[in-house]
Design goal:
Chain lengths: 554, 162
């Protein structure tokens, strides 16, 4: 069967089970869009390619499937890059397909030409420039395989215009066999036994669960390990949701804006069991003073993460779910009473609090949301204070129900990501908790939500400030608020002008009814909550300090 | 410490850029890089010289391995290996100095590849020390140009890098 390159793209995507694509057309990808037109695959037209990439990302995080986005050459592709980099940092499987100028024009500075493969090389797991239509189907198959296996990540395929028009036989039956890419998944049994021995002997064990636990679907195994050997569990920011935060052993998240109990337990444990995490500086604080009293076991699928930021005693390279399952066979039931008592004491002593006042406090908003919604709710966040309060004041219980830009910290991620998440999880309530600064970075996507009737709910913690930066200026720069105070914007009115529901909240008493009418409304809704401006995220570890030097908010 | 790393890669366009990009982005110190064919069709061999402590080199090899088009990475520093570099030197030479230069060329088992009234072009292969010594001896005569390949290396029998 002879197909054009454009038809091959669509046919291959169907074989990969792709049911939705996020993107924006343009001259260099118009042929692919033509093939998409009557293909039956749903297309969500974004209003900025960055939005499209974040939508694909949010879709992937919420579902565990590969997210797909399209963009044209040049500016379309460069607009995608923030979204791609974001997915790369958080190991999210997306496949980005970009149009490129015709092969004969490449290198000639043609209209809308950009070196997409060159630009995206350091922010993709892999990328391709197609030079032969006969390679197209195989490349797409490889791209999906690479994106979702091993440590997942974004893969980009750049397809010149003439390749989209050229024809080739379509065959998708080939096996993927890439000699330079054979991720190991099972883990070395000797190491696993060694790790079990350390766990069995430890007096003060502590688990640090990262995003890898969620990616590999290992939450159940993590739960079994924690409850079999009675080990407290801290998570990284990306690991939020991997272990139920309402469980007595949950220390919640650790790190710069983590919880006291988590940071103290990590500092004092004699055995650290790190699973699917990369010891980012936001988690470890000063790396050479991180968990210095502990022997360290590190389970990760990416061998390059072993000994990268923190040197460990027992590395186990492979898939967290598989490794935990085999580890469970060798770990004995045990209960270190003294340590657990100590941990429970820490948790009791350091409950999160905030000072309530006449103004609406952002923490209060998050707590109310947490009280009101069912477990079938995906919380997406923007970046800054809103993100940290969402992490801290909402009780996260399930994997893939907290979606946030961890590694890149991308303002403007949350709202489009929530659209992608809702598309992937139509059954769930999807809420984007936003800051006013971040929301404005991709606010145009309200149009996308309205046009496609994607009923996401945005709760703006409107503090008229780039709050997190303002907080740093308050604490470390003598309150010199350099470019962080914003003019007040009425987001409810903006929402209405796009055709969404908009509600403004200025008093505490209005909050609950505003939230419930937004949640009950069948379409997209924005609740603009005017909150206290000079509220800080605490506790906090000062930048560069060890994590047990956590201060504030006791 | 300086390490010698042999890397087998898919012989495709852009692979060298990926490798050098990786070094730039991660801030690794690359001393030399050479690329050429290997014994197998479609596979090229890169020889890298990198400076760093054990942890840094561990990272270098692992990050290289993460590149999809990299097939095999071997740190051969501690293996018994043969290292060679090729250097072309253009040195000033007239009737008064030519024979003295030719003597040095002889001792080093180098070869003269071009002769003109005012200069000689000499080719020499060997390890870095030998090349450095050779260059130092010729310097007083007036070196006009040097071109070097960078190092290629191979482990002695029986280990193969495949
Ligand atoms: C794209 C981007 N630009 C700049 C920053 C730096 N930055 C981090 S937090 C922050 C403020 C965020 O403000 P807002 O969205 O209003 O949230 P708040 O902290 O007030 O909750 C800024 C500017 C960033 N993370 N991302």
């Amino acid at each position: 069967m002879k197909l054009t390159g454009a038809q091959i793209v669509i046919e291959a995507l169907k074989r990969e089970g792709v049911d939705v694509i996020f993107g924006i057309p343009g001259g260099a990808i118009i042929d692919v869009y033509d093939a998409l037109y009557d293909s039956g695959i749903r297309h969500i037209l974004a209003h900025h390619e960055q939005g499209a990439a974040h939508m694909a990302d949010g879709y992937a995080r919420a579902t565990g499937k590969v997210g797909v986005c399209f963009a044209t050459s040049g500016p379309g592709a460069t607009n995608l890059t923030t979204g791609i980099a974001n997915a790369y940092m958080d190991s999210v499987p997306i496949v980005a397909i970009t149009g490129q100028v015709a092969t004969g024009l490449i290198g000639k500075d043609a209209f809308q030409e950009a070196d997409t493969v060159g630009i995206t090389s350091p922010i993709t797991k892999h990328n391709y420039l197609i030079r032969d239509v006969n390679e197209l189907a195989k490349t797409i198959k490889e791209a999906f395989y690479i994106a979702k296996t091993g440590r997942p990540g974004p893969v980009l395929i750049d397809i010149p215009k003439d390749i989209q028009i050229a024809t080739a036989d379509f065959d998708y039956s080939m096996e993927v066999d890439i000699r330079g890419y054979k991720p190991s998944v099972t883990g070395h049994i000797k190491q696993i036994k060694e790790a079990a021995k350390l766990i069995n002997e430890s007096k003060k064990p502590c688990i640090l669960a990262g995003g890898g636990v969620i990616i590999s679907g290992a939450s159940e195994e993590l739960f079994k390990l924690a409850t079999k050997a009675n080990i407290p569990v801290a998570t990284t920011f990306m690991g939020i949701g991997s272990f139920p935060q309402d469980h007595p052993f949950s220390l919640k998240s650790a790190g710069m804006h983590g919880n006291y109990a988590a940071n103290y337990a990590l500092t004092e444990c004699d055995l650290l069991i790190a699973i699917g995490c990369r010891f980012s500086d936001r988690t470890t604080g000063k790396a050479d003073e991180f968990a210095t009293r502990a022997k360290k076991i590190h389970i990760d699928i990416d061998p390059a993460e072993i000994n990268k930021n923190v040197v460990v005693d027992i590395p186990i390279v492979g898939d967290a779910k598989i490794i935990l399952n085999s580890l469970l066979e060798y770990v004995e039931e045990k209960r270190e009473e003294e340590w657990l008592d100590y941990i429970m004491g820490l948790k009791e002593e350091h409950r999160l609090t905030y000072a309530d006042g006449p103004a609406v406090k952002p923490q209060f908003v998050i707590e109310k949301i947490c009280e009101m919604v069912s477990e079938n709710t995906v919380i997406v966040t923007e970046v800054g204070q809103n993100q940290m309060w969402s992490a801290l004041f909402f009780t996260h219980k399930k994997p893939r129900h907290f979606i946030s830009s961890g590694g890149l910290g991308t303002m403007g991620f949350g709202f489009p990501a929530s659209i992608g998440a809702k598309v992937g999880r139509p059954d769930a309530l999807v809420i984007d908790i936003a800051g006013d600064g971040s929301f404005m970075m991709n606010i145009q996507e309200i149009a996308t939500a309205v046009e496609n009737n994607i009923p996401v709910k945005v709760i703006v913690l409107n503090n008229r400030a780039l709050g997190m930066v303002r907080q740093w200026q308050e604490l470390f720069y003598k309150k010199r608020y350099s470019s962080t105070i914003l003019k007040e914007v009425n987001f409810a009115e903006i929402a209405k002008s796009f055709g969404a529901k908009g509600i403004r909240v200025t008093e505490k008493e209005q909050l609950v009814s505003a939230l419930s009418s937004a949640i009950d409304y069948p379409g997209p809704a924005v609740v603009d909550v005017i909150v206290e401006q000079e509220e800080n995220v605490i506790p906090m570890v000062p930048p560069g300090a060890p994590i047990d030097r956590i201060v504030g908010g006791k | 410490m300086r390490h010698t790393i042999a890397v087998l890669v898919e012989n495709k366009s852009g692979v060298l850029a990926r490798v050098s990009n990786l070094f730039r982005r991660r801030g690794y110190n690359i001393e030399s890089i050479t690329v050429g064919k290997s014994e197998r069709e479609g596979i090229a061999r890169i020889t890298l010289e990198v400076d760093g402590d054990e942890l840094a080199i561990e990272q270098v090899t692992k990050q290289l391995n993460k590149l999809i088009e990299v097939i095999k990475v071997s740190d051969i520093t501690h293996d018994e290996m043969i290292e060679r570099e090729l250097m072309l030197i253009k040195v000033s030479a007239d009737t008064s100095t030519r024979s003295e230069i030719l003597q040095i060329v002889d001792i080093f088992r180098a070869g003269v590849v071009d002769v003109s009234p005012k200069a000689l072009v000499i080719e020499i292969t060997g390890d870095r020390d030998k090349l450095d010594a050779f260059e130092a001896l010729l310097r007083p005569f007036g070196i006009k140009e040097i071109a070097c390949t960078g190092k290629v290396a191979m482990v002695r029998h029986p280990k193969e890098i495949k």
